[in-house]
Specification:
The structure is a single chain. The protein has one domain. It contains four helices and 15 strands. The strands form three sheets. Strands 5, 6, 7, 8, 9 and 11 form a six-stranded antiparallel sheet that branches. A five-stranded mixed sheet has the order 10-15-14-13-12, with no helix packed on it. A four-stranded antiparallel sheet has the order 1-2-3-4, with helices on one face. Helix 1 runs parallel beside helix 3 and helix 2 runs antiparallel to helix 3. The radius of gyration is 22 Å and the shape is globular.
Amino acid sequence: MSRIILMFLLLAGFGKVALGQKPLTDAQLSKLNAYQDTLKELAFKVINSPDQSERYESNAIMVRTLVRALQTQNSYTFEFDSLKSLSIQRSPDNAFRLFTWHVMNRNGTYRFYGAIQMESSDKLQLHPLVDYSNNINSPQDTLLDNNHWLGSQYYKIIPVNKNTSLPYYILLGWKGNNVKSTKKVIEVLRFENNKPIFGMPVFEGKAALNGKHRIVFEYNRSASMMLNYEAGENRIVFDHLAAPAPEMGNNPALFGPDLSYDGLKLVNGRWKLTQNITLTNQDSEMDDLYIDPRKRNTEIINKLK
């Protein structure tokens, strides 16, 4: 496992080659498509192989292959859109993109892998993410960097660059955990001297939230927790987790949604907690396909008159 991490670091450092973010040539596109096909095969083994040794062996090859693919000139413009087993999220301001994925251990725990590729016009800038979760005693209180990362598989990036002296990004992620419980994370990412820093005390609300660098939710593995971003309301919304009985309140592995919802509203660059919120339905293009039956009945009656 440590050999894979070292290899990732060495390859990322080696990967500073000339890049110019121009449209991909036919040769570059062909090369990247070939890399993508190889990555798809390896990612399938990482996720589906019943043998843990084969999963990690395939992952090691996948790390090398991904870094070599990103060393291809103009790789930042290639979407890897058929590589579904990895989460690939591009920041809305196009400043960087995140590659994150996991390997499942035979005991039901997970190890996470990832990298941040920065947008660059002259060279590949790649920051490997090294999962340090087992050595982080207080995840919500600890400032971290890419070599000491609370591993997660991110699915949403929210930029915060207004009403704040220090721009940052909120990352929503799935962390897994073990055979009893699952975790999700609201992470904070910022850059100092072009280096990624994870964690920032931007949350306000109840005492347990104030001053935290990130928020980590834990709940029963058989349950499902909603953690999303409502762009129209400028807020993060999530299920309120609770124990099935008061005497079980100290065991998050028993927690689950209690059919109420909480939110974090962005106000002047900070996220303020609001409990017991009402969720709003986001407008969708599918709405145009819906025919209100009451309106339809009225139209039929009018035609019969």
